[in-house]
TrEMBL record:
Catalytic residues (positions): D52 (nucleophile)
Residues that bind substrate: Y110
Organism listed in the record: Paenibacillus rhizolycopersici
Catalyzed reactions: uridine(38/39/40) in tRNA = pseudouridine(38/39/40) in tRNA
Superkingdom of this protein's organism: Bacteria
Domain Pseudouridine synthase I TruA alpha/beta: 8-102, 147-255
Family: Belongs to the tRNA pseudouridine synthase TruA family.
GO molecular-function term, one example from the UniProt record: tRNA pseudouridine(38-40) synthase activity
Its EC number(s): 5.4.99.12
Protein name: tRNA pseudouridine synthase A
InterPro entries on file: PsdUridine_synth_cat_dom_sf, PsdUridine_synth_TruA, PsdUridine_synth_TruA_a/b_dom, PsdUridine_synth_TruA_C, TruA/RsuA/RluB/E/F_N
Length: 259
């Protein structure tokens, strides 16, 4: 038996998230079907985490055990030939049998993208949340350091969260403003990319942080209110849950893997 670790990139627009759901049509469903077509094995893959419907992934690791002896360098092309065009396996490698893509993960980074220009970008509309109104970007950036460290993030977790503990560690949170794609003659504040890195995330956590940040940018809250919200440990204290389409799983990091 072999343990294969792969990374997949996908446009989540047309899927109900990564992890298998009763209604089907998830990224996991399509990958497992591609493996069945390739090897004849009816198996389950294990992702580094789940993503909500409409959320995208630049690099999402997953692993599975297989009896197939297909050389590791042939898996990507073989699977991609059996997958929809909006799902692509990027890398494949063999890892020790005890490696687990979720439990072995040390750091995860998500990116949320806000289009703060007056007119939405028709080519990026499925990957950006459009906010045409004026935002105080400096205030939004000033609020981010309050999120850093090890805290109980109940205020930024879905009410439907089933996790026993809402304590997580956020290592980095930063917002980058990109005006390079602005079209001449149009107005706006550019594209805002929020990157958040932590040891793990709760359901809707980044999207609730973004919803709260937008209220700070709109002047409805002050930057220091982020600290008050965090300390409240109450979902009602935070802002709304931002749309899923602006969120992308950016990367997942592991310690050095032998084998």
């Amino acid at each position: 038996m072999r343990n294969l670790l792969m990374t997949v990139s996908y446009d989540g627009t047309n899927y109900f998230g990564f992890q298998t759901q009763p209604g089907g049509n998830t990224v996991q469903d399509h990958i497992e079907e591609a493996i069945r077509q390739l090897t004849g094995e009816q198996l389950k893959i294990h992702g580094s985490g789940r993503t909500d419907a409409g959320v995208h992934a630049r690099q999402q690791p997953f692993h599975f055990h297989t009896a197939s002896q297909i050389p590791v360098e042939r898996w990507c092309l073989a699977l991609n030939g059996r997958l929809p065009s909006d799902i692509r396996v990027l890398t494949a490698r063999e890892v020790p049998l005890d490696f687990h893509s979720r439990r072995s993960a040390k750091r995860k980074t998500y990116r949320y993208t806000i289009n703060a220009n007056r007119i939405t970008d028709v080519f990026q509309r499925n990957y950006q949340f459009h906010h045409p109104g004026k935002l105080n970007i400096e205030a939004m950036q000033q609020s981010l350091p309050f999120l850093l460290g090890t805290h109980d993030y109940t205020s930024f977790a879905s009410r439907h969260s089933t996790k026993a503990s809402h304590v997580r560690t956020i290592y980095d949170a930063r917002m980058i403003v990109d005006s390079s794609a602005n079209v001449a003659g149009t107005t706006g504040q550019g594209i805002l990319h929020l990157y958040v890195t932590g040891n793990g995330f709760l359901q809707h956590m980044v999207r609730i942080i973004v919803g709260t940040l937008l209220e700070i940018g709109e002047g409805k809250r002050t930057p220091v209110s982020m600290k008050t919200i965090l300390e409240a440990k109450d979902r009602k204290a935070a802002g709304p849950t931002a749309e899923s389409k602006g969120l992308m799983l950016w990367s997942v990091e592991y310690d050095e893997i032998s084998g």
